[in-house]
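quick one, 262 residues, struct below
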Amino acid sequence: MKISSKELVNKMEATLNNIGYDLSKAIFELGQVSRSEQRDRGETFSINEHLKGLILSMLSNQRPWGPIVQNMDKITDIFFGFQLDKIKQSDKTVLAKQLKNIKCGNRSIDKQMENLDYNIRIFEQIEVVYGSLDQFVVSDTPDNIAWELGQGRKYKLKQMGYTLALEYLRNVGVKAIKPDLHIRRIIGDERLNFCSGYPSEIETVKIMGVIAEESGVNLTYLDNLMWLYCALDYANICGSDPKCNLCELQHYCNMGLSKQAV
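---
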């Protein structure tokens, strides 16, 4: 039996509460929900804040997020408090080396830093056309903006695909889903069966949008909740080795049901 969207959210929250996981603290520390609430209140984000959001999205690529959080003060220092002018003047090979020294690099870090000046120029071009990056990121749906930044022709950013572009948007308060491995796996037919097979990035964005609307929760909150539920450095309930015995969703999940049948 497929679980309803509202019950899905309730049971994930209940599971985390049962194991003593401080969900509110984790959501606060991620900061994306609070930034979406800032945007709802009409607050704006500077180009420096957009640059920070871009850089952090790049650093999240194909690596655990926990060490990034633990080293956030050092990362802030490496990037001169995310001041655009100072970053433009910096030696990008030095930035990459410093990130590697604190084990916050990834397999693309050299290319990411090498292309940082190019991406800053794209940001500056967008500001000329739209007046500000803030105006640009809300000028169309998050899906379309992410597609333009990740796959488009006019404002395509280097070392940024569709998924990382969605992460950048969430970092500047736009309500969106990042369709990463954890979320695609849990909603696929091996687990909660919200679709047949393993969903594509675009399918995942659509499915999560429906779940958020039906459950009445902030889209970014839903993403954070589900990601925290799965991620190794966090609650790690429904990761690659799921703890079905702890999960309130097990009776609705193909993985949970298969374990019960053994």
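The two ends are 19 Å apart (CA to CA).
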